[in-house]
Protein 1
Amino acid sequence: MKFLMALLVTLVVFSANISAQTTAFTYQGKLTDGGSPPTGQYDFKFKLFDLVSSGTQIGADVLSDDLQVTGGVFTVNLDFGASPFTSGASRDDESFPKDLSR
């Protein structure tokens, strides 16, 4: 009986973790400005494409304002939703930063 109770508790805990997953993910990139790694705040626009070149944009732009860039490195949470990734095909992204100090 204790074994069955432990098994039931384990299943409930794992099923709660599975349902808590989202489509968001962490993206880390490296930015250069004039060949140098900048430090400062930037506004970014991220786009997702179905091919590396001459691809079609999938979904809407994802905007991230006042993103801190340190030594050229930035980290951001992105969420393009579930539909772009359901086919299993590879995807390509582009980012468009805007330096806020200029």
Note: The beta strands are 25-30, 40-49, 57-69, 73-78, 92-99.
Protein 2
Amino acid sequence: MSTAQKPPLELADRYIKKNYPKTTYNIVAESVDFGIDGIGFDDVFTELRMEGIKVAHQELETYFRSNNTTKFDPFKEYFESLQYDGKTD
């Protein structure tokens, strides 16, 4: 199947994984972090459209909430980072 025949979401997946390999989805804030300061969802959505990848906005949102994106839970990370010295306050 040539690139022109591939579904837009598959093309978007490849583009994001190539250009933004550190992408994570924050399950608490329900937002995407592309691993680059100043780059947000709308920036990447616009990039995709400018590259000719005609993925729908809602379809891209669903993609990020799916298992295709690494999930990040800031609460879990925080509590797992705490050190307990065996003493109480």
Note: The first strand starts at residue 24 and ends at 26.
Protein 3
Amino acid sequence: MHSSPSKTPKQIAVANYEKGMKYRDKAWAYEEQAAVAEKEKKAARLLKKAQKQYRKAIKKYQVAIKKARTFIRRTVVLGMP
């Protein structure tokens, strides 16, 4: 069985940031749909979906920030990429 090489903190940070951006974009799309929804109930449901996507995005951004700090620390303190 082949094991894939471990990702670096930088790679993990970038991947999580990009995933967070996708969740943010989904949230924006739900908000746009809610703005033009004809029924209040539908608009509320879409806004709830948007909030869920924002929460997912925030979690991904938090991981990205944590991993970016690790990457920056290794680069500045240890001189490692």
Note: DSSP finds two helices and no strands in the chain.
